[in-house]
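Lecture notes, continued. The same structure-token format from the folding unit now serves as the input rather than the output. Read the line below as a description of shape only.
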């Protein structure tokens, strides 16, 4: 192609290498298109990052809910079994000591069988994450204990558990059943004040 033909060629014509020649004065439009594409690109990046963050949060929440479901799925069943265990304990406590000592071999075997059954039931519950709360001597905590009565006792700091009427149980971090307790009142003022400060 001669120099004169190159000069006469229209700006939109194709060159020998197949590229389209752009007009020199139209660079303002190209700049606006590039800016627009860069903004779209940033918006798409932002959306992708947000979607990835939402998916990660959903994955974590689902894993936590699945773990909680595994840990606490048997809570209602365990609560019902605790009632059975309580009844076994009440049956054993209802037998007078004289009857236990004077009973025949069959009666002693019955008592022993009930005790073994109670231990086996509590052991099975413990293997599945149910733990007994033994709060005697501890400071009263309304999250784990249910106060049934107050005991005047000047030797023990106020709000100390002095008697357990019915043991409590927890499963994982949750209270399955609060311990029913008797709480000391009228203890040393200094100990009561230090407990309140904590």
């Amino acid at each position: 192609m001669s120099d004169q033909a190159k000069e006469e060629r229209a700006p939109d014509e194709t060159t020998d290498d197949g590229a389209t020649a752009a007009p020199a004065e139209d660079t303002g439009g190209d700049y606006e298109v590039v800016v627009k594409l860069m903004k779209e690109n940033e918006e798409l990046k932002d959306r992708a990052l947000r979607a990835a963050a939402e998916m990660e949060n959903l994955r974590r929440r689902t894993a936590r809910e699945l773990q909680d479901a595994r840990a606490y799925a048997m809570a209602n069943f365990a609560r019902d079994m605790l009632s059975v265990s309580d009844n076994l304990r009440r049956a054993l406590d209802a037998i007078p000591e004289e009857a236990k000592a004077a009973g025949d071999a069959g009666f002693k075997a019955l008592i022993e069988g009930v005790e073994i059954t109670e231990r086996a039931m509590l052991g099975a519950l413990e293997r599945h994450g149910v733990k007994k709360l033994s709060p005697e001597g501890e400071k009263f905590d309304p999250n784990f204990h249910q106060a049934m009565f107050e005991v005047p006792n000047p030797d023990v700091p106020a709000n100390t558990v002095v008697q357990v009427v019915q043991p409590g149980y927890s499963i994982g971090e949750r209270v399955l059943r609060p311990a029913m307790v008797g709480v000391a009142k009228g203890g040393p003022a200094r100990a009561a004040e230090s407990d309140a400060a904590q």
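Point for the exam: The radius of gyration is 39 Å.
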